[in-house]
């Protein structure tokens, strides 16, 4: 499969993508745990069906020491016993934040409150930005049919 577009080869789009990626680097330096960031990125990408991001975040998480068991269970995190309560709250927020059209209220107060019990305001801010960013990147990749499978860990970091 060939991508429909190469964003980085277009001067204006490439410049915009570099700004977006610099925002991700800032989020990676937040106090939101790196494992949580990767689990959230993976779950959002699974929901949206973004193969390129699933490829990337599975490999990045594995490189960072995440177990294959936890990575394989992200899609069924509600029934899995391998995630902390904080990770479960982040995954729940990620799901509701990704599926905003499925609920009349978007993200419910209960889901927000559970996340707020585990993360301070800086971490919540990073988490919300991370969820939003992942949804945007998923859509860019899906619209342009970015291929998956060839991502090399560290390639974009």
From TrEMBL:
Gene3D superfamilies, per the entry: AhpD-like (1.20.1290.10)
A matching Pfam family: CMD
GO terms assigned for molecular function: peroxiredoxin activity
Annotated Carboxymuconolactone decarboxylase-like domain residues: 11-96
InterPro entries xref list: AhpD-like (IPR029032), AhpD_core (IPR004675), CMD-like (IPR003779)
Highest taxon above the source species: Bacteria
Record keyword Oxidoreductase present: yes
Keywords: Oxidoreductase, Peroxidase
Name of this chain's protein: Alkylhydroperoxidase
